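Q: I'm writing up a methods section and want to include an example of the input and output format. Could you take the sequence below and give the corresponding predicted structure tokens, formatted cleanly so I can copy it straight into the document?
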Amino acid sequence: MTSSAKFTLSRALFVGFIVATLWRVLAHDPWQEAKNAWQQGKFDVAVRIWGKMAAEGDVNAQVMLAHAYAQGSGVEQDNPKAISMYRDAAQRGSGEGQYLLAEAYLRGNGVEQDLNKAYQWMESAASSGQVVAQLKLGLLCLLGVKGVPEWEKGKRWLVRAASAGNDTALWVLRQVQLREAGESRFPEGELDTLLGTQGQSWRVKV
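A: Here is the clean output for your methods example:
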């Protein structure tokens, strides 16, 4: 065998080894395995995998496990446990955990409704880059959760959400522009709907 042929064979064997290694790694990716199981409705399988990952310190798996408890998918529904897990993940810096905890406080799901805490955690989630949190923080600012409408702060967060491709934020900014031009009333009821708080007397009275 010539030296050139030996080199070609060695190279082929090396490439084959890399491909085989990558296949084994990807084929046994627990996150992907859990995700596939969840999408296929095998919630108990996903919960088991995420539970093991969360026990090893994976904060993203913890958030998904909390979501399973909140929904009662693959486990018995346990809102207090879900909230506790969301809170721990949020305190550990998980943007998704911060957003879901903010949502819980905003709607009063599993906890007593607390607009100040909803605002606080929504702002943390928005700062971490959660686009939907940027949208909702903007809405909370416009609707005056802190006692008075925070127009400039609200617009800044809406601009960030719109810049990230959120069409709803763009629509709200247009409504703000029309209001400021005196061409229309601000659609507060529609903003309540966007927040998912329609029908609730949640807004601070001033």
